[in-house]
Design a protein that fits this description.
The complex is a heterodimer.
Chain A (H helix, E strand, L loop, with lengths): L1 H22 L4 E8 L6 H20 L7 E8 L4 H13 L5 E3 L4 H13 L4 E3 L20 E3 L4 H15 L4 E7 L3 H16 L3 E8 L7 H8 L5 E3 L4 H13 L6 E3 L6 H7 L7 E5 L8 H14 L5 H19 L7 H13 L4 E3 L2 E5 L5 E2 L2 E7 L2 E8 L2
Parallel strand pairs in A: 1-2, 1-3, 3-4, 4-5, 6-7, 6-8, 8-9, 9-10
Antiparallel strand pairs in A: 10-14, 11-12, 12-13, 14-15
Helix pairs in contact in A: 2-11, 3-4, 5-6, 8-9, 11-12
Chain B lengths: L1 H31 L6 H17 L5 H24 L7 H23 L4 E2 L8 E4 L4 E4 H23 L1 H11 L1 H6 L4 H27 L1 E2 L5 H14 L4 H21 L5 H15 L14
Antiparallel strand pairs in B: 1-4, 2-3
Helix pairs in contact in B: 1-5, 1-8, 1-9, 1-10, 2-3, 2-4, 2-8, 2-9, 3-8, 5-6, 5-8, 6-8, 9-10, 9-11, 10-11
Keywords (chain A): Amino-acid transport, Signal, Transport
Protein name (chain A): Ethanolamine utilization protein EutJ
InterPro entries (chain A): BCAA_transport, Leu-bd, Leu_Ile_Val-bd, Peripla_BP_I
């Protein structure tokens, strides 16, 4: 028995050595995928993977990159920060990929970026919005190997503040935010700065703690100060509750949010009749009449038999984005390290890349400067309101 | 002024929930001197049972309330039988640690069975808002339901404890377990009944919270459980009217702290209150200082 086991161990070991040596063969370009495919935020990762796969299949059918097919190496990071870092290390060292796509969330991306930086592999997240993902918090320096193809939270906060001032003609805003969440605090700061700078007044700002369910007392307090809009930069659980409790207390002013609102659970929790006069910024809307968007929806439906959401669109764009950089990188396949460097420079120089979620320009902070859409909830149904460019 | 009244209404709503949960704490403590830390999680189980009976059996509010209360009273009795009864004569700390264990067991079991993310509780009642004083004060029908059901359950409980045989037995056991046994009272059955009634009340609170907030999750019992414990101590642990008074007071205090201070401080205030009461009047608002006879 022992012998059999040791034989199996030996064989697997030999096979894995072969697998590695085969994998670095010269006919494919290997790209790693490090995404949340199970556990807490699996929704995000799975949708993004569907989008990435659709894009890469299309590119390969058209002949790939200078005659070579792109091969995806997909590993699940289980929605876990530590695991995200392990996956990135595995992709860089064992799988010898040229670049890593993912993860979906800010925390996991920050942690995977540490490994990517160490092994000098470009890593690109399709949806991590926190400002400090690409920029070092302490030094303010851009992280050399870390990129994103979505807008960041500063931009989102600005967009919503300008929307409140210009479109809704609001003068006085109230803000409810989660003091235990980086996402929420960052958005609160950015919204407030822009709103005040452009002539608005923030007349109430109320913080709450993790897992809060009862907002009735802070909403009552805000209601009686009579603001024109309420900005609530929170995730979908709290968003539903805040909308519901505000409407039940007779507060009918517009409620604004960010991309955290882009989830069907918001309407389920708030109730269809309460989910009115709600506006939030998002990466994409399926009702965008842009030909490119509609074409993407057609293709996605043909392959997966369902409507794509924002995350699927972000994944799809990322697939084309990496292909575009690969084409411009003029890879020589002489050494992996040199090719990774060439690819990194190509990504850095991306200008006017036209995607489904907007035109992407990578700026010096490795952020994508791109448009956001504003979505309105009418009786619980998402309606495309407008597209805003940076 | 209208803001203050609105905040008071918000506070009473929150207070009803605390009061219902703290009744169970107080009853169990009054009889076997045990702080049942699993009580908040029974409240959570109650919410989930109602959720399942509404979603899969298509029951209405009152039937699902009854199903959930029935299920949880059996659960409460089972927990007592298997977890607490063998430890009845052990040091009190063992029972307390066991209670914490049961609490974690319930939370994690529910996470395995129903998943860790929150679920949307179905809307059982059509929502109606009543605007008073030109819309400055809003009361909705769910708040009225919550208050009516809470008060009704408390009246029933009071009747059971004061006027029935089992209530008499409970009061006897809480005074002196050994003497009650000598008088021919079946102590084990009495304790079982106490757990059943307390758990049923917690389940009712769970259903009402699901109805009111439309959202439930496996950890929803943790904080309300602790708060209800504070409410019970505030009113005087082991005293039924004290639990009610404590629950409503705590709900109103929390709401006023959020309304006139900051919502970040409300938990801190609640727990600071607990410490203060334990220092100033350990027996609670309605508690009497009983001198130990030596």
């Amino acid at each position: 028995m022992k012998r059999v086991v040791s034989l199996i161990v030996l064989l697997t070991f030999l096979l894995s050595i072969f697998a590695v040596s085969f994998a670095s063969s010269k006919n494919v370009i290997k790209i790693g995928v490090d995404l949340e495919l199970s556990q807490a935020v699996a929704q995000y990762g799975q949708k993004e993977l569907e989008g990435i796969k659709l894009a890469i299949d299309e590119i390969n059918q058209k002949g790939g990159i200078s005659g070579k097919k792109i091969e995806l190496v997909v590993i699940d990071n289980k929605s876990d920060k530590t695991e995200a870092q392990n996956v990135a290390t595995k992709l860089a060292v064992r799988e010898n990929v040229l670049a890593i796509l993912g993860p979906a969330t800010s925390g996991a991306t920050k942690s995977a970026a540490v490994a990517a930086t160490k092994h000098k592999v470009p890593i690109i997240s399709p949806s991590a919005t926190d400002d400090t993902v690409t920029v070092d918090e302490k030094t303010g320096k851009t992280k050399t190997y870390v990129f994103r193809t979505c807008f960041n939270d500063s931009f989102q906060g600005n967009v919503m503040a300008n929307f409140a001032l210009k479109t809704l003609k609001a003068k006085k805003a109230a803000i409810i935010y989660d003091a235990t969440s980086d996402y929420s605090k960052g958005l609160f700061k950015n919204f407030k700065n822009t709103f005040v700078k452009n002539g608005g007044k923030v007349i109430a700002q109320e913080a709450f703690g993790k897992g809060e369910q009862d907002f009735s007392s802070i909403i009552t307090k805000i209601r009686d100060k009579k603001p024109d809009v309420l900005f609530a930069p929170v995730y979908y659980d709290e968003a539903g509750l805040i909308i519901k409790q505000a409407r039940e207390l007779g507060m009918n002013i517009p409620i604004l949010g960010a991309d955290g609102f882009d989830d069907p659970k918001v309407v389920e929790k708030a109730g269809k009749n309460n989910a009115n006069n709600v506006f939030f910024s998002a990466h994409y809307s399926s009702q965008d009449t842009d030909a490119k968007v509609q074409e993407f929806i057609k293709k996605f439906k043909a392959k997966y038999k369902q409507e794509p959401n924002a995350f699927a669109a972000l994944g799809y764009d990322l697939g084309y984005f990496i292909a575009d950089a690969l084409k411009r990188a003029n890879l020589k396949f002489d050494s992996l390290a040199k090719d990774r460097e060439r690819l990194r420079i190509a990504i850095e120089n991306t200008k006017n890349f036209v995607g489904v979620t907007g035109i992407i320009n990578i700026n010096k902070y490795h952020n994508a400067e791109k448009s956001a859409v504003i979505i309105e909830l009418k009786n619980g149904v998402q309606k495309f309101k407008q597209k805003l460019n940076p | 002024m209208s803001t203050f009244i609105q905040q008071l209404i918000n506070g009473i709503t929150l207070g009803s929930v605390y009061a219902l949960i703290s009744l169970g704490y107080t009853m169990v403590y009054g009889i076997i001197k045990l702080i049942n830390f699993a009580h908040g999680d029974i409240f959570m189980v109650g919410a989930y049972i109602a959720y399942l009976s509404v979603t899969y059996l298509k029951l209405g509010l009152i039937p699902s309330l009854i199903v959930s209360m029935g299920f949880c009273s059996i659960l409460g009795m089972l927990i007592e039988k298997f977890a607490y009864k063998p430890l009845r004569n052990s040091p009190r700390i063992s029972a307390l640690i066991t209670a914490i264990g049961v609490s974690l067991l319930l939370e994690n079991l529910m996470q395995i069975i129903m998943g860790a993310d929150s679920r949307v509780f179905p809307r059982l009642v059509a929502e109606k808002n009543y605007h008073l004083f030109q819309g400055r004060i809003v009361v909705n029908n769910k708040q009225i339901y919550l208050l009516i059901i809470t008060v009704l359950l408390m009246i029933i409980l009071n009747f059971v404890v004061k006027k029935t045989k089992i209530g008499k037995a409970m009061r006897a056991v809480s005074q002196d377990m050994d003497a009650a046994r000598l008088m021919g009272i079946n102590v084990d059955t009495t304790i079982s009944y106490t757990f059943a009634i307390g758990s049923a009340l917690a389940a009712a609170a769970g259903v009402l919270v699901g109805l009111y907030y439309n959202t439930i999750n496996p950890l929803m019992g943790v904080l309300p459980g602790l708060k209800a414990f504070i409410a019970a101590v505030f009113g005087g642990i082991g005293i039924i009217p004290g639990a009610m008074l404590g629950g409503f007071s705590l709900g109103i205090i929390e709401t006023l702290v959020s309304g006139y201070g900051s919502s970040m401080y409300k938990d801190a205030v609640a727990f600071a209150l607990l410490i203060l009461i334990l220092i100033i009047k350990p027996s609670g608002l309605l508690g009497k200082n009983i001198k130990e006879k030596v």
